[in-house]
């Protein structure tokens, strides 16, 4: 779930490698709403009035054709790609690497379906707009701390959070390439040659499945630099929880189990975790953060609709009509259902206690019904942004990154306590 290619796709990619067919109609209704929001924000009459900057030129796709020789390919065997926008001024040696999200595929059939989209093939990837994209924006008013950095947006086309290294075979006999780890390595290698190696400061970020990838690769990214560099990691909407759904099953653990075993994700998981737990458990952020040493900031909603719809109330849990309405929009939830959703927030807060004493870490867990808050101007740093401690997401992240104040480590009160959530998109 992430950025908009220039083909006018919504900013949030559907978890289409994960959702069952019965969920698609509901998702695309929400996608249409997100697209309307994007049109109003980035190209409609509100854009000049609210932000005062024109639409920027699309950022071209750069394909890593040479990486194919190393087996760094998308699910369908096409070369992976990224978009690069050069920095300027006093940030010409500052680098921001963003890993795109877009769900996971844990079965041969699901991964085969992903081959027919930009989440599995570079044949469908187009140039993208950074305008209106929050932390990726070049608008100094909306993104004062990172607007003029070198920005690389890495396209997601492996279905395993840039972590797998295996092969499979589709029903039609064609080979499926599970090479997310090689893609990550190839992109970082090329960016190092293009100036990343000489960075004075660098940040690795990701949203949703890209956020999970950031957890996985954060320490590796930091270790890439031979000289002293300020390296930090920022994860948005990637703190996926290993909890039971409303039917009492850990259905999302089953999904992750499929990803881990089908795509051979084990090799990137923390060795200290693997000595005590099953590989699937070690793929969840609550375990990953115990082994990460690089400074990190975590942004998430305690009522993340992606987790509500796919972890708490998945289609496999056979929800009744009231639950279907609730997971579409939290305003439709009754008090009993809200109590269940409160458990998501509480579990997230408990899992983050292990980083409470890390001075160089921070987290911003709001109570908004929203997913991926750092890649949209409206939720990053504007009058519509959710606030904790009177800080927007952008202000909290910027203060943490630049050490201006003690890092924010806040978990919001229970829904619907935060009035700054009122204007948030239900996506």
From TrEMBL:
Keywords: Cell wall, Cell wall biogenesis/degradation, Hydrolase, Membrane, Secreted, Transmembrane, Transmembrane helix. Its EC number is 3.1.1.-. InterPro entries: AB_hydrolase_fold, PAE/NOTUM. Its main location: secreted. The chain crosses the membrane at residues 27-46. The keyword Signal does not apply. The keyword Chaperone does not apply. One of its GO terms (molecular function) is hydrolase activity. GO terms for biological process: cell wall organization. It is found in: Secreted, Cell wall. Belongs to the pectinacetylesterase family. Hydrolyzes acetyl esters in homogalacturonan regions of pectin. In type I primary cell wall, galacturonic acid residues of pectin can be acetylated at the O-2 and O-3 positions. Decreasing the degree of acetylation of pectin gels in vitro alters their physical properties. This is Pectin acetylesterase. It comes from Triticum aestivum.
């Amino acid at each position: 779930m992430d950025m908009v290619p220039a083909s006018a796709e919504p900013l949030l990619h559907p978890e289409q490698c994960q959702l069952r067919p019965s969920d698609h109609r509901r998702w695309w209704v929400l996608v249409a709403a997100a697209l309307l929001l994007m049109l109003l924000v980035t190209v409609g009459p509100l854009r000049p009035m609210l932000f005062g900057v024109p639409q920027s030129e699309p950022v071209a796709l750069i394909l890593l054709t040479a990486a194919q020789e190393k087996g760094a390919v998308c699910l369908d065997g096409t070369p992976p790609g990224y978009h690069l926008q050069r920095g300027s001024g006093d940030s010409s040696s500052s680098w921001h690497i963003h890993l795109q999200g877009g769900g996971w595929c844990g079965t041969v059939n699901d991964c085969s379906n992903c081959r027919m989209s930009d989440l599995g093939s570079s044949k469908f990837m187009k140039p993208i707009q950074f305008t209106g994209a929050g932390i990726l924006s070049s608008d100094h008013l909306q993104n004062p701390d990172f607007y003029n950095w070198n920005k690389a947006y890495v396209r997601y086309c492996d279905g395993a959070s840039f972590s797998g290294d295996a092969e499979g075979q589709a029903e039609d006999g064609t080979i499926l390439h599970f090479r997310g780890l090689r893609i990550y390595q190839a992109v970082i290698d090329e960016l190092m040659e293009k100036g990343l190696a000489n960075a004075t400061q660098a940040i690795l970020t990701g949203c949703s499945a890209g956020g999970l990838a950031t957890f996985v690769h954060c320490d590796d990214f930091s270790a890439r630099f031979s000289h002293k560099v300020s390296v930090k990691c920022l994860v948005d909407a990637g703190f996926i929880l290993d909890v039971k759904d409303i039917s009492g099953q850990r259905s999302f653990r089953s999904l992750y189990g499929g990803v881990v075993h089908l795509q051979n994700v084990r090799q990137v998981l923390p060795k200290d975790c693997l000595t005590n737990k099953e590989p699937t458990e070690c793929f969840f952020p609550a375990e990953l953060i115990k082994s990460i040493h690089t400074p990190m900031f975590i942004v998430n909603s305690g009522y993340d609709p992606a987790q509500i719809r796919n972890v708490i109330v998945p289609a496999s849990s056979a929800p009744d009509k009231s639950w279907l309405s609730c997971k579409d929009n939290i305003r439709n939830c009754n008090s009993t259902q809200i109590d269940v959703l409160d458990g998501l927030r509480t579990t997230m807060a408990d899992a983050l206690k292990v980083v409470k004493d890390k001075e160089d870490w921070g987290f911003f867990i709001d109570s908004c019904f929203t997913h991926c808050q750092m890649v949209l101007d409206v939720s990053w740093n504007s009058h519509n942004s959710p606030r904790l401690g009177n800080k927007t997401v952008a202000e909290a992240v910027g203060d943490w990154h630049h050490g201006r104040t003690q890092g924010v480590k806040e978990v919001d009160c229970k829904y619907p306590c935060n009035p700054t959530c009122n204007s948030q998109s239900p996506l």
